[in-house]
Automatic annotation (TrEMBL):
Sequence similarity: Belongs to the class I-like SAM-binding methyltransferase superfamily. TrmB family.
InterPro entries the UniProt entry points to: SAM-dependent_MTases_sf, tRNA_(Gua-N-7)_MeTrfase_Trmb, tRNA_methyltr_TrmB_bact
A Pfam family the protein falls into: Methyltransf_4
PROSITE patterns per the UniProt record, alphabetical: SAM_MT_TRMB (PS51625)
The keyword Transferase is assigned to this record: yes
Protein name, as recorded: tRNA (guanine-N(7)-)-methyltransferase
UniProt pathway: tRNA modification; N(7)-methylguanine-tRNA biosynthesis
A Gene Ontology molecular function term of the record: tRNA (guanine(46)-N7)-methyltransferase activity
Domain of life of the source: Bacteria
Record's catalysed reaction(s): guanosine(46) in tRNA + S-adenosyl-L-methionine = N(7)-methylguanosine(46) in tRNA + S-adenosyl-L-homocysteine
Gene3D superfamilies linked to this entry: Vaccinia Virus protein VP39 (3.40.50.150)
Length: 258
């Protein structure tokens, strides 16, 4: 399987928000991504139960695979024990897609940001069961990880799959894909690096296409500057399969940094 070349829901992602700023991951009760006190965030706070397997994985595998947040650049070569292209995923939910992608692209290293402990535990459990060496996790706000730990121009790719669409019009400003956040992401991409977003909410897909298309440092890889075909590395989730059988749409957008 290959990453996109320069030519051509069940929300579980991330997003910024507060009542006065963009944002949004899954949920509708509290900010998940953009702004608390006018600061962009990438998540919304929500509760979740921990299973015994997730609790065990956190205790046994967390010290190895969950990275501490620190206000200094991350040395990915030291963390992974090799030099390889690094892909950041913002809001990996329960981690199933992340695990499959990492296994299908063993020559890439993956850093996943997810603030919700059940999801972190679930991905750790998959890492242990399937012996996946090329994933590390931040249980922390992705915006702060970007700002303090990811050097600019260092990422081969960024994945944002099914971020909270914030369906109500008055909440649209909480969506993650907004011009200021996209500009921040682009600065952290290496030249030629890609940004891959996916959503199952048509109005959000339209907004994503407009915002990404307006960024002067991004180029749409899809023919006609539209939506991309689903890259082979992104697996279909059970929710997505159900939606497709019911005639629901899913839109992928793959842009590259100039």
């Amino acid at each position: 399987m290959s990453l996109p070349t320069s030519t051509p829901s069940d929300p579980h992602g991330a997003g910024p928000q507060d009542d006065a700023a963009p944002g949004g991951a899954e949920g509708d009760n509290s900010p998940e991504g953009v702004a608390h006190r006018a600061r962009i965030r990438s998540f919304v706070v929500r509760a979740g139960r921990m299973g015994t397997g997730q609790i065990k994985a956190l205790a046994e595998l967390g010290p190895r695979y969950v990275l501490p947040f620190e206000q200094r650049p991350l040395d990915t070569a030291q963390v992974f024990g090799r030099q390889a292209p690094v892909v950041l995923e913002i809001g990996f939910g329960m981690g199933g897609a992340t695990a499959q992608i990492a296994q299908s692209l063993p020559d890439h290293d993956f850093i996943g940001c997810e603030v919700h402990e059940p999801g972190v535990g679930a991905l750790l459990k998959l890492i242990g069961e399937q012996d996946i060496p090329n994933i590390r996790i931040f249980q922390h706000d992705a915006v702060e990880v970007l700002e303090h730990m990811i050097p600019e121009g260092s990422l081969a790719g960024v994945h944002i799959f099914f971020p909270d669409p914030w369906h109500k019009k008055r909440h649209n400003k909480r969506r993650l894909i907004q011009p200021p956040f996209v500009a921040k992401l682009v600065r952290h991409l290496a030249p030629g690096g890609y940004l891959h977003c996916a959503t199952d909410w048509a109005p959000y897909a339209e907004q994503m296409l407009e915002v990404l298309g307006a960024d002067p440092d991004l180029v749409n890889t899809a023919p006609g500057n539209g939506y991309a075909e689903k890259p082979t590395y992104r697996p279909l989730t059970k929710f997505e399969n159900r939606g497709l059988k019911l005639g629901h749409g899913v839109w992928d957008l793959v842009f590259r940094r100039k």
